[in-house]
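Hey all, quick one. A colleague (J.T.) asked me to put the zinc ion job into the tracker so the inputs and the structure tokens live in one place instead of scattered across chat threads. No bug as far as I know, just bookkeeping. Sequence used:
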Amino acid sequence: MTTSTLAAIIYKQGEPVVVEELELDDPGPGEVMVKIGGTGVCHSDHNVYSGYRRNDDLPTILGHEGAGTVEKVGSGVHGLEPGDKVVFAIRPMCGKCKYCSTARWNLCDPISSHQPSAQFHKNGTTYYAGLATYSEYTVAWENNVVKVDPDVRLDRAALVGCAVITGVGAVVNKAKVETGSTVAVWGCGGVGLNVIQGAYIAGASRVIAIDTNPSKFQYATRLGATDTVDASKNDAVEAVRELTDGGVDYAFEVIGQPATLRQALEATCEGGTAVLVGAAPDDGEVTIPMRHLFLDRSLIGCSAGTGRPRYDFQWLIAMYRQGRLNLDDLVTRTRPLTEVNEAFRDMEAGAVARTVLVP
Ligand code: APR
Ligand code: ZN
Ligand code: ZN
């Protein structure tokens, strides 16, 4: 049997996304079909749309930050039933590779994705990131979804799978920011705002939000930033050093550019830590003065918030329901799936914190 579904497809990078109907197979062994309740518009999707990151698996259905309700389960699936609410995990968590065996779920090999056996019937269309959440229905490997609180709103829970775990996780799982420490964040997009709220939750005494688009500061302040620096008008490194008596304890780069990674490192005090969170361009390289490391600084990377989705998604959603994690102010706008191109334009214009598409 197949299910008809509307989905957002990229045929050619740099061209508009096409939203059209296609047929989706029933889930195969170890797979589940999910009815999408909400899916976030992340810069990683934009990178495929725009061609910033080359993708050779076209046509592909975009979307990796999402939540939904299990519609059907394939044979041999354990612990998931129709009606369960799930959040997609952006890494496949096979449970068997050397990374999963050592609880480094965020690095599961193959990191690129697990393509489900259930096919979307049209021109060999693939699942972007193995997930294809820009669709009314998708099929995912059971290890790519996490069952969550049945009472959570899906258009909010969607963000937990990418922006929230990537941002909050970088602070609490990787950098382990201590209460009272000082933090600077380069980039106040959907992910950067979650670094900001992660730092707030961790008890940072100062959270400096840096962006070239000052309209982002309204969100940053609502999510816990104590100071803002407009990098279009100021030297952000200088500004951070001045605000913090010579540099922050932790600086996070949440854009994915060599220049801002170097700035983040330069804004740390001696003994401080700079963390790369933004997705690195394939050929990106950064040069740093050795002296920075000699003076006890650390430069570290963080992929998908060094997350353990089956554990982290539960406490993140619990904290949202308790009012201690802000997902509502991250969603500036919801739109129907058919407006995906408009949502990308809003992202380019810096007009939103996050758009959530509701198919
Ligand atoms: N200095 C400061 N801020 C900048 C600069 C710069 N040179 N260049 C861009 N920005 C800001 C933008 O104005 C925007 O507010 O960075 C923010 C990026 O936000 P989004 O486009 O919403 O991106 P987001 O989804 O948060 O992703 C950020 O993390 O997951 C990765 O692939 C993703 O690399 C991307 C990064
Ligand atoms: Zn993402
Ligand atoms: Zn694995």
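Adding what we noticed when we looked at it: The chain has a mean pLDDT of 96. The pocket of zinc ion (ligand 3) is lined by residues 94, 96-97, 99-100, 108-109 (CB under 6 Å).
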